[in-house]
Amino acid sequence: MRSRQDFARWAQRKVRANSPAWLTLPDFGESQSFSFPLDPPTERLAQVDTDAVARWKGDWRAFDQIAGVEVSLVERHWPSLGKQTLPRRVTAIGVAALNEVAGSGAAWRLICHRARRLVSELGEPVRPKLGTIASRLAVASDDDIDRLVAVVRWLVSHPDSGLGIRELPVPGVDTKWVERHRGLVSPLVEGLTGSPELGLLQAGRRFTVRILDQAIEHSLRDFTASVDELSTLSLNPRCVLITENLAPLRRMGELPGVIVIHGCGGDVVELAAVPWVRGSPIWYWGDLDSHGFRILGLARKTWPQVKSILMDDETIDRFASLAIQEPKPFRGRVGYLTGPEQMALAKLRAHDSRLEQERIGWSYAWAQIVDRLTPTQL
Q1: Average pLDDT of the segment spanning 317-334
Q2: Which domains does the chain possess?
Q3: Does the pLDDT value for residue 377 go beyond 60?
Q4: Disulfide check for 92: which of 34, 115, 149, 331 has CB 3.0–4.6 Å away?
Q5: Which is it for strands 239-243 and 282-285: parallel, antiparallel or unpaired?
């Protein structure tokens, strides 16, 4: 015998798995039907526990108060107990009814109300994008929805404005609103124009650079620069060390012939346009997690000469007690890794572990860097 609680949990799983897809349907899933078998008791069970069966039947008879939920019955003829009418199956007609069963009826009604408004005011081309912004629609304020419609309309009407993201002349929209809500804006603009680009001025990525050797001629030891600016520099390092995060760069001392660059995550590939970077031996040090190895793979795809440092089994094992659960692991295939790197990644993925660069003891990390990057080791 399956209970009302069983039905609610089943409905919750359905809602979590399918809500984004339902939101893109013309009727928001109201023509869908969701049937849940109740596994009625056998005659033997009814004989053994008559009271439990009676309570179960009563629970399902009282379930008709939710609109769109129907309980179908079946007749059984039991020699010992006579004719019995038992609940056989419960059906939720429409996604709204299923959400009521799951306890998320109010949230679903709010999302649907806002989704209908976006389709009505912006047009049918945005409907396929509604699933990607469902979670954001649920938590946005009513005023934010007003601003969203106004901003999307303005951007679609001015596809090549060239303005900065804080310069849009949309009444009621403050200078930082688009930055905070870009995850809502871009999908809808893409639905209407076919491109997620907003036609806005793009601020170029600036990379932090630290020269670890006083003998390398440059007026600054620490500075930030764009790719174009870096390309104008006449630098000739013995090797380049790229670090995923900024904090380790700040702690590095003197090291002959070495320039270290903050790689800015996946933006590291932009450094391929810098002649003195791509022409140097390159070492990469990133977080020991799925994303760190993904970035290492991207770097090696860009520069086949890239070697990794502190991204190995020994480092994982030595500092295992400082690892945490990776909140959003990258599940895709990671290419361009060496055999030992693949093994290290597999070890991390076995438990979705994450060992951040900053958690590695600095004395150990710096000793490894000095040992690997000294001239005799290159």
Answers
A1: 94
A2: 4-103 (no CATH), 106-193 (no CATH), 206-377 (3.40.1360.10)
A3: no
A4: 34
A5: parallel
